[in-house]
Design brief:
This protein has about 500 residues and is of the alpha+beta class. It folds into 4 domains: about 220 residues, Thrombin, subunit H (Beta Barrel); about 35 residues, no CATH class; about 90 residues, PDZ domain (Pdz3 Domain); about 100 residues, Roll (Pdz3 Domain), CATH 2.30.42.10. Helices cover about 20% and strands about 35% of the residues. The protein contains 12 helices and 27 strands. The chain has a 6-stranded antiparallel β-barrel. The chain has a 6-stranded antiparallel β-barrel with strand order 2-3-4-7-6-5. Strands 15, 16, 17, 18, 19 and 20 form a 6-stranded antiparallel β-sheet that branches. A hairpin with a 4-residue loop joins strand 6 and strand 7.
């Protein structure tokens, strides 16, 4: 069954089949009042914070696509009239024209007040493209809202409203202190039913749901439904420890898997939105990929950890700091980099302009480089996972083809033209890949250029051939290849040499 990520979250339901004998023995426990009602503090927390939780109502004007010409008899006197009318309602390429009809679209979400002066937090997708945003308090009061700032990458937005009286506000807690199984409370506007309270537990932390470069969600089974987006997730101290944002569901219905942006991330983003009206993230200027067990073995990294540098931006701060492709970042500014996903989040949270120590592993040894963190602009590439005439100089009968299933050739003008390879790229071009080879399993294709083997540059097919033979004699089971595509984007691949 296919599952879809929904920004409008859904509730959890559970079903269990219990044998009669087991059910009889467990009945006093299962039916105890304490378990039926959950922790005693839920009612007290809900009562103390519910006035700070708001509904978010938005309105947007959407142009209605122009209609089709009705079928008319050829030469009908109405034909030209209708043609001219629809032309004014349709713009270029069939898009709505200046006279096209439009309609108002309303949507509802949730939010919460973080300052008595009127600062409100919600999801960016709740207010995206809205012409009007209204904050509705728990007592029904409607307040017109202005957008202070928004951050699409973590789906947060900050609003401001004006009220004659101070507003009830809530405080953020520390999401890093959450434990699995800890009780949490969601309050919001599900299905337009404002002020709804539900409770559940923390199912998991640090979830990556592939929604953005900084995914680090809290997973909960608290009932979160359509309209809860942007609402708060509370701990039993009445502190906001997350912003309810998405669910995973096969059809939009509930299967009990909801996700909230942790308060640790929210606080940093909101502080920047208050100060600048935008987020200002740190930037390292590298392309990264995971350190697989094969790559770790080849680079002598124990235990398996870190983020592998697959390439560098010439304008980024990493290159002048001495960081190179093939280095593995294991620590950034004192924060351990356990896997690839950690590095973008840590760098993004680092103040722009700060000089930070970066610990890398190169040739099996740790080194420390100092990098001045730059600012990530929207136009910059983010650090992310990477994701038939042969040249006579190639040796089709060598160990490369036998071991790896590759046919190679020295780069020349003809091959550059055939595969569209840029002139700046140096190395040995792959002209053919055996479909049943280890190389094919790692998605190597004709036109890829092998830039280096085990961090040693190769410029000819003979060089590469000799390098492979040497590694095999040294007893190496795997070797790390740096590959470049035709545009110069690089990635590391570990191939088995046995």
């Amino acid at each position: 069954m296919a599952f879809t990520l929904y920004r409008l979250v859904q509730p959890a339901r559970r079903a269990a089949v219990v044998g009669f004998a087991v059910a009889t023995m467990l009945w006093p426990v299962l039916a105890s009042p304490a378990m039926a009602r959950g922790p005693d503090g839920i009612a007290d927390v809900a009562e103390s914070v519910i006035d700070a939780v708001v509904n978010i109502s938005t309105k947007q004007t959407v142009a209605v696509q122009g209609g089709q010409m009705p079928e008319l008899p050829p030469g009908s006197p109405m034909e030209k009239f209708l043609e001219d009318l629809l032309k004014n309602r349709r713009g270029p390429n069939g898009s709505p024209g200046p006279d096209a009809p439009s309609r108002r679209v309303n949507s509802l979400g949730s939010g919460f007040i973080i300052d008595p002066s009127g600062l409100v937090v919600t999801n960016n997708h709740v207010i995206a493209d809205a012409d009007e945003v209204t904050v509705i308090l728990n007592d029904g009061t409607n307040l017109k809202a202005e957008i202070v700032g928004r951050d699409k990458k973590v789906d947060l937005a900050l609003l401001r409203v004006k009220s004659d009286a101070p507003l009830k506000a809530v405080k953020f807690g520390d999401s890093d202190k959450l434990r699995l199984g800890e009780w949490v409370i969601a309050i919001g506007n599900p299905f337009s039913l404002g002020g709804t309270v539900t409770a559940g537990i923390v199912s998991a932390r640090n979830r990556d749901i592939n929604s953005g470069p900084y995914d680090n969600y809290i997973q909960t089974d608290a009932a979160i439904n359509r309209g809860n987006s942007g609402g708060p997730l509370f701990n039993l101290n009445g502190e906001v420890i997350g912003v309810n944002t998405a669910i995973i569901s096969p059809s939009g219905g509930s299967i009990g898997i909801g996700f909230a942006v942790p308060s640790k991330i929210v606080v940093g983003v909101i502080d920047q939105l208050k100060q600048f009206g935008e987020t200002r993230r740190g930037w390292l200027g590298v392309r990264i990929q995971p350190v697989t067990p094969e790559i770790a073995d080849s680079l002598n990294i124990k235990p398996v950890r870190g983020a592998l540098i697959a390439g560098l931006d010439d304008k980024g701060p990493a290159k002048p700091a001495g960081i190179e492709a093939g280095d593995v970042v294991v620590s950034f500014d004192g924060h351990e980099v356990k896997d690839m996903r950690d590095l973008p989040r840590i760098v993004a949270d680092t103040p722009v302009g700060k000089d930070v120590p970066v610990v890398i592993v190169r040739d099996g040894k740790e080194q420390t480089k100092t990098v001045k963190v730059a600012r990530l602009e929207d136009s910059d590439k983010q650090a992310a996972a990477a994701t038939k005439k042969d040249d006579p100089s190639s040796d089709d009968k060598g160990s490369v083809k036998k071991t790896l299933g590759l046919e190679l050739a020295n780069l020349n003008d003809e091959l550059r033209k055939r595969f569209g390879i840029q002139n700046k790229i140096k190395g040995v071009v792959i002209t053919s890949v055996d479909a049943n080879s280890p190389a094919a399993e790692k998605n190597l294709t004709a036109g890829n250029v092998i830039v280096s083997v085990q961090q040693q540059p190769v410029t000819t097919a003979a060089d590469l051939q000799a390098r492979i033979e040497k590694l095999k004699k040294e007893g190496k089971k795997n070797a790390v290849f740096l590959l470049s595509n035709a545009n110069g984007d690089t990635t590391f691949v570990a191939l088995n040499l046995q």
